[in-house]
Amino acid sequence: MRILNNIFTKSARHAEVSYLENLARQARQSRAKRPARTT
Questions:
Q1: According to the lineage, what is the superkingdom (predicted)?
Q2: Half-sphere exposure of 35 (CA within 13 A, CB side)
Q3: Cα(20)–Cα(26) distance, rounded to whole angstroms?
Q4: What pLDDT is recorded for position 24?
């Protein structure tokens, strides 16, 4: 049971990380579309 729980937490963490990376990528793309005047 402990091994199963470990695998689950690992996959959940991986999903969380990939989700955050996806958000960061979207934010970067939307920022690139707009003219960056705030320096």
A1: Bacteria
A2: 1
A3: 10
A4: 94
* 9-20 burial: b if 16+ Cβ within 10 Å, else e: eeeeeeeeeeee
Question: DSSP string covering 1-39, please?
Answer: -HHHHHHHHHHHHHHHHHHHHHHHHHHHHHHHHS-----
Q: Scan for tokens 């991986």, then name that residue.
A: 14
Q: What is the pTM of this model?
A: 0.55
**Mind listing the pLDDT tens digit for each residue in 1-33?**
688 888 889 999 999 999 999 999 999 888 777
R_g (Cα) of the chain, nearest Å: 17
* 12/23 Cα distance (integer angstroms): 17
